[in-house]
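Data availability (excerpt). The following record was deposited with the supplementary files.
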Amino acid sequence: MPEHIIEDKEILTKFSRKIVERGMSVPAILFLESVKYVSFLGSQTLVFFGPIITAFIRSEPYYRITELLEDRKNIEFILTEIERMEAERKQSQRLEKK
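Predicted structure:
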């Protein structure tokens, strides 16, 4: 696999992990499912809000994510990662209760 594709997947996995860690899995899944078919427009909306959002976070990773979200395959990858990580989190919680 080309190096840039591996790097992109790592970025998307890290992004997914942050969503799960913050307890935002359900809202993120709803949002991503709703914009999946218009992913280009969704990513452009994020670019539009970029100046406001980047006042609070670093701009380079933010704009890299918006670029990756233009591709519907990356949206599917994020959804899959969020669901996988959420299932792992729930499984570990069940094991801790036993």
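Summary of structural features: The mean pLDDT is 87.
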